Amino acid sequence: MRRCILFLFAAALWAQAPNVPKGKRLFEAKGCYQCHGWRAQGGLNGPRLAQTKLNLQGFRNILRNPPPSQMPPYRAAVLSDAETADLFAYIQSLPPPPPVESIPLLKE
Amino acid sequence: MPNNSVDRRNFLRGAGAAAGMAMVPQAVSQEASGTAKPGSEANAAVKPGSDFMVDVIRSLGIEYCAANPGSSFRGIHESIVNYAGNKKPELLTCLHEESSAAMAHGYAKIEGKPMMIMVHGTVGLQHASMAIYNAFCDRVPLLIIAGNILDVNYRRGNAEWVHSVQDCAAMVRDYTKWDDNPVSLGHFAESTVRAYQIAMTPPYEPVLVVADGKLQEEPIEEKNLRIPKLSMNAPPQGDAEGVREAARLLVAAGNPVIVAGRAARSQRGMELIVELAELLQARVQDQRLRMNFPTAHPLYGNPGVLPMSPNVTDADVLLALEAQDVWAMTHKMTPLNRFGMEAQSTMKPGAKVIIISAVELNHKSNYQDFGRYVEADLAITGDAEVTLPALIEEVKRALTADRRRTIQERGRKVVEANLESRRRHREQAAVAWDASPISTARLAAEIWAQVNNEDWSLVSWDRMMSAWPTRLWNFSKYYQFIGTHGGSGIGYGLPAAVGAALANKKHGRLTVNIQTDGDLCYAPGVLWTAAHHQIPMLNIMHNNRAYHEERMYITLLGAKYDRSPETSDIGTALKGPNIDYASIAKGFGLYSEGPIENPGDLGPAIRRGIERVKKGEPVLIDVVTQPR
User: Fold this and answer.
1) CB-CB neighbors (< 8 A) of A39 in chain B
2) CATH number for the domain including A88?
3) Could you read off the pLDDT of B348-399 as tens digits, one per residue?
4) Distance between the two ends of chain B, CA-based, in angstroms?
5) Choice among B115-129, B412-426, B435-449, B588-602 with the minimum mean pLDDT
6) Helix, strand counts (H, E) of chain B
């Protein structure tokens, strides 16, 4: 019985743990890439998200109530709390860019 | 030669000299001696009216005539190729009238003078109309000759009835500066010369003259035909008192900001803006509608922001030089753009707005390109480029030694901000450096690495790629950037680039066109025109496989109403199947490569492309890219 409870608890935790591949799918399906780029690198239409300094709550707050801009509000009907966690996990999983000094084409 | 014939050499007296002028033909005044017998046909001694019409056109120094062939202007067509030897103007074979007009648009922005286009007064003008509207909104001169047959007795059958119209210019009158429907050859001469003069008086705009089929094809009967002398109007200069007040405000300002829209019309114009900015140590926000200011200049302001609506919230005096939509840059809408429509000023309390612009001289009512009314503190009606020397002199006069010291200190801060901004751009460019689809920053950097030691000219707008060329390249010459479409009519990009490349050809410049995919699909036949006329240019596709701006709008609106953004590809994406631009280009006779998806393959492909361009060919390289 105890084993069973432990298993269920672990399964529930696993189910709630942010899921990076799912976050990647959401990043594409929900149109995040359209303004922020496929690698969340940012552009004129949306800021860089990769290596964000926000925590999950801050990230979710901006999704739900974006500042005045072309950013649409992503409410729970479009993106659940669990999905925002997946999305955030994906963004956090993106590797940092190479140092600019290591790219000859970007030297002044 | 019989007395009643027309001596074509007389027509051309003076035209040769005019053809050699770079910007403004010299005064041409010449007379034709005699008339032709009415009703005569196939008489070698008799000249058609279209010969005289071509002489009129040649007197204006027109280099090229872009046209998709049409029966209503076949007379002028035949006279260009046979009577004038297909030189000045040289006929450019176009596969769509929209291409003709957009080519002329791009050409004029490099060459500083109009190209001529010929269209049917009905169906051809209908095709060309969007491109004419773009040129109108972009303040660019075009000379449009529209063929028509007004006299019912001369319409041979149904095709000429459906190609005839009472008032063909009516269709484009809202977005041309002037038009006329001449009823005689003398009238055609006067109106065409007048049209050129009007088109080339700031604000530059397209003009239209109807060439009646009967006048073109019938033998010349009019006596004492002459081509009027072309008198060019001096551009309108701002009022001296207003300029003095502008200088006073600018010199007294704590933080003046200059916004340049379509301010510079030449290298000289650019140099004047630099001189004014340096005198005031003022930041320049270039809207990138023309090449107004060198991008590497330390006073170049915030090159990373959306160039159309630059951030000017810190200004206490804003000087807008032929700027577009001053209202939008000085206000914000809340709570979210368009939703709610509450607007408030973003300027500091007490900030002054000075506008110098000639656009006020040519407002129309129907189309709304004039933008929202601006409550300026000082509005000076006059062309910015010709007003700048007087403004600079007044600023010099108003500057005291104390003010100069204060201004120098201010300049140091602007320079620091500029350097920081450039450093951040490079850091930002490194993100997604190895991504596939290829990042637009990587695309810009790879092209720059190949062209920066050449005499290059970028003939495409770069906002659709997050302005990376503006942020990473060093633009310093007027012809290195030509702004954008004006009216946001998509389909401008490729033909305007071909027109600009044609203008660059004689100067030996390396023309680079970063070509968006959706735009190319409107009228790709202009690639054939480039191949046929051997117009060298490097076309590099920014192929994000969508009408992406619209895709973002669908996502925005869907999410606003809690609808899934997952449908935003419908009606916007260009995939399933992917379009093979390299094959399209090859089919039109171009050397092409792609689609390139691996960023490592990009540099070598661009190098190979440039080698072909240097041999005089147009080239297309398809690159699959990130959205923006």
Assistant:
1) 431-432, 435, 439, 626
2) 1.10.760.10
3) 999 999 999 999 999 899 999 999 999 999 999 999 999 999 999 999 999 9
4) 66
5) B412-426
6) 22, 20
In this structure, is residue B550 part of a structural domain? no
ipTM of the complex as predicted: 0.89
For B152, which DSSP code? G
Nearest C-alpha neighbor of B495 from the set B63, B115, B69: B115
Q: Tell whether B34 and B175 lie within a shared domain.
A: yes
- What's this model's pTM, rounded to 2 decimal places? 0.92
Cβ–Cβ of A68/B422 closer than 8 Å? no
Residue B516: give its domain's CATH number: 3.40.50.970
| B198-239 pLDDT per residue, tens | 999 999 999 999 999 999 999 999 999 999 999 999 999 999
Q: Of B376, B403, B421, which residue is a domain's last?
A: B421
Chain B environment of A35 (Cβ under 8 Å): 552, 627-628
B380, B482: one domain: no
CB–CB contact B557 A72 (8 Å):
yes
Tell whether B529 is covered by a domain.
Answer: yes
Which CATH number characterizes residue B389's domain?
3.40.50.1220
Same domain, B253 and B147: no
Please classify residue B412 by burial: count the beta carbons closer than 10 Å to its beta carbon, then call 0-12 exposed, 13-18 middle and 19+ buried.
exposed
Label the pairing between strands B510-516 and B537-542.
Answer: parallel
Q: State whether the Cα torsion B326-B329-B335-B338 is positive or negative.
A: positive
Chain A hits for B337, CB-CB cut-off 8 Å, are: 68-70
β-strand pairing of B331-336 with B339-345: antiparallel
Query: By residue range, what is the domain housing residue B291?
Result: 240-421
Same domain, B494 and B412: no
**DSSP H or E segment with residue B118:** strand B116-120
B263 domain-assigned: yes
